[in-house]
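Lecture notes, structural biology module. Today: joint structure prediction for complexes of two components.
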Amino acid sequence: MKLFTARACLILLLTSSSSYAEPLAINEVADGVYVHVGKHLSFDENYDADIANIGFIVGNDSVAIIDTGGSYQVGKSLREAVRSVTALPIRYVINTHIHPDHIFGNAAFEQDHPDFIGHANLPQTLSLNEDALLRNLQKELGANAGGSKVIIPSQIVKESLELDLGDRKLQLKAWPKAHTNTDLTVFDDKTKTLWTGDLLFITRTPSLDGDLKGWVSAIDELKTIQDKLTIPGHGNPSHSKNDMLDKEKNYLVLLLSETRAAIKNGMSLMAAINTIGKNENGDWQLFDVVNRRNVNFAYPQLEWE
Amino acid sequence: MNKHLIKLGLIASLCITSAQANAEAIDKYWQGMAKTYFPNAVIEESSLIKITAPIRAENGAQVPFTFSIDYPMNEGSYIKSVSVIADANPVPMVAAYNFNANSGKAEVTTRIRLETDSYVHVVAETSDGKFLMNKAPIRAAGGCGGTIGGDEQLARQAAGKMKLSVKSGEDASLQMAHLLIKHPMYTGLQRDLVSQGFRPAFFINKVIAKYNDQVVFNADTNIGVSEDPNIQFPFRAAQSGKLTVLITDNEGKQFSTSSDVQVN
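The predicted structure, tokenised, for the full assembly:
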């Protein structure tokens, strides 16, 4: 009976995922800049592939997508949202980094034959991780993972790259290893909107998958960028970028100093995971889950300082 | 239409919940595996083996793992070897550790890779040929096939570098060695863009520790050991001397380091 129910579900899901996509809810946060703000759900519980901030910028000639969501389905809904705003061609799909909640919607845009653009490290890192990324997605989403693919970028950014959407220039910048080894930011000259990708988390606990010290340095550099509006990788768009960056930096510096102290004092990795971060009072979402993972990630790296 | 969609959504979310409830370690591989690794052995489940590991791993690539066996360690009776087996890993045998009376205690703290939710079995063979076993379920993801980049050339240059420290254990006659090895521990299961195939396995497969020329610890390590292997093990030191560690990788390269030990 149970088996039958599970099978029935599967069929329904496959059917429901095949054709219909509701346009994603978007906000025009600046002239021609559209954002969908993801929910702060964990990958481990009720993950629905719609947790990251994704969106697009419309120029006079073409559209650039900035991150595509965590599944083909989400990407498809984002594409519907684009089409509800403009019929201009989608010429660029930019991925701000490798993480699954930002890239797995890419497949929904293959039909537009855009340039898929990412950090210079993205092709190699994606291919190294392709199998694991797909396996985890399948595990998290089951049938809702259907259609999702890893797409290797057709154009890479080594340091910087300018795109022209028609009377609208975007400045892409590749960062040294920080949140990941594939971080890319996008700056819209026209509205002075900065898309930080996951170099900036607002509300959701920052998660480390690159280099802790590198991330702290990146924050200092991000603070020097003059923008009017900041779109973080997670959390609401903000007019007070540097306050938000300071808040993030406070936590990362705490993580750095407490992990260093744990290693110096001979505290085991397990004990460090259980204790570090208790003094952080930043009022973050998902702190307990993400902070433990961060300690697990930072500790083995910092042992080799 | 709307009603239909809501119904679909409801069923969809139910499916996800049940799929997740199922996504945890299941003890289904062990029967067959025990026969493969320990043919003809009678394996007795035993609480003498204590395992310390997270119930849910924060990071499948670096799962902290400790076993400690409450068993005599003297010439007449001791734990001869301990195998750590992660049932659901592509290569389940993580490592086998060989001990003797000079080891003082059969105990190791290390970090292992877990590809997915898995039971980890610890099997100890005693000097008189008995097999003891204990197990722990650990929820985890993505430790073997994936790794976030890194430059292969740089990794190879640094491979084999070691840090070794020794401090006195709780038991006065026991010392605790802490060995860190810089090594990418490539599994052979990671894709390589350049070759369009898989990056060849490249890992430390042997760790031997001698105290004043007597072997106190000897491990056969495999790809289930995390990148930059981190191994803590005890050994017996009746007098001051030198602990020497010799490691070998699967390409035959050897590296060694040592640490002076003061015993009062």
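Point to remember: Residues 1-18 of chain A have pLDDT under 50 and may be disordered.
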